[in-house]
Amino acid sequence: MATLRRSAVFFVLGLALVPGRALAAEGATHPQDQIVLSGAVVVPRGQEIGEIVVFHGNVTVQGVARGDVVVIDGRVTVIGQVSGTVVSVDGTVVLGAAAQVGGSVLAGGKVLAEEGAQVGGDIKQGVSFTLREPLRAIGRFVVWLAVSVSTLLLGFALLLLAPRGADAVHRAASSAPWASLGWGVAAFLGVPALAGLLLVSVLGLPLGLTLLLAFAFLLFVGYAWSAWIVGRLLWGPPRNRPVALLIGWATLSAATMIPYAGGILWFVGAVFGLGAVVVATWRARGTRGRHRAGVVAAPYVTEEAMEEEGVGL
After folding, report:
1. Residue 17 has pLDDT above 90, yes or no
2. pLDDT tens-digit map of 272-312
3. What is the rounded distance in angstroms from the CA atom of residue 87 to the CA atom of residue 139?
């Protein structure tokens, strides 16, 4: 609203003013603006003034106000003419029978208009002048941005620490998607349940607390791996791993911006990625974790090498 933007400017200018009673300057060539921190503004009959902003006090317009009249805490009485909008954030607006308002009349309290008063715009009383909804929207965006950036940084750290593990997670998700989802659900339900059992015993209390604190981190890890999986599906090997992660992260981040559905998608991604890690870990344990005497372990074959040789995953 243009009126509120002007009020913000007037607030900065008004800090230099001394509280008191302001009257329209007689004989002024151009209507002057009046900004008062605490006091009253009276425009006598037959005189003109520009914008009026009062932070604490009352305004009475008997003459002409060429701009808007804004009062933060106080009453506005219009007997003459206001070319702009009349706003009382936390007070009452009184319109006399000869009052003429070119814009709207907005009041946090009541609007009392005598018969004959003319208003060019809307008349609204009980208006809530708050920033609750804008701040709520900004808060949601900040949370989304923080989670997205944190996920991207975590994903790059995982690729740096375990590049072969990243390939194994991708293979597990691609070859066993339902198993990955199932194990993810089992981990999601099992970790808190195990932590709860440990918390009831004195000896297991430290481990139970550790599991509960680590549970949120595990979900973030699972979502980061899901971003990697999606990116690898869209940007297949042997192409650059960080680029694949960036593509998957951008895709999921855009999808999680959808109200309500975004939270569900984040949860599904976290559970699925966590399950893919469980499947990849189990496969690594079965193929490389145990060695029999006289048996040489097979060398690890990267995903890129398998693609170059034309071997299916």
Report:
1. no
2. 999 999 999 998 876 554 444 444 444 545 555 545 544 44
3. 28
Which amino acid, one-letter code, is at 85?
T
Structural domain boundaries of the chain? Answer: 2-125, 132-308
Report the 10 Å Cβ neighbour count for 12. 9
User: What does residue 106 show for φ and ψ, rounded to 5 degrees?
Assistant: -125, 130
> Which tens digits make up the pLDDT trace of 194-232?
988 888 888 888 888 888 888 989 999 999 999 999 999
Q: Provide the 10 A C-beta neighbour count for residue 105.
A: 27
Say if strands 59-61 and 123-125 run parallel, antiparallel, or are unpaired: unpaired
Confirm if 62 and 45 have CB atoms less than 8 A apart.
yes
CA distance 84 to 118: 13
What angle, 0 to 180 degrees and rounded to 10, lies between the N-to-C axes of helices 205-234 and 163-175?
Answer: 80
The whole-angstrom separation of Cα 34 and Cα 13 is: 10
Are residues 312 and 209 in contact, defined by beta-carbon separation less than 8 angstroms?
Answer: no
CB-based contact 34:50 (threshold 8 Å): yes
On whether the CB atoms of residues 221 and 238 are closer than 8 A, the answer is no
Please tell me whether residue 150 adopts helix, strand or coil conformation: helix
Give the mean model confidence (pLDDT) for residues 114-142: 78
308: enclosing H helix or E strand: helix 303-309
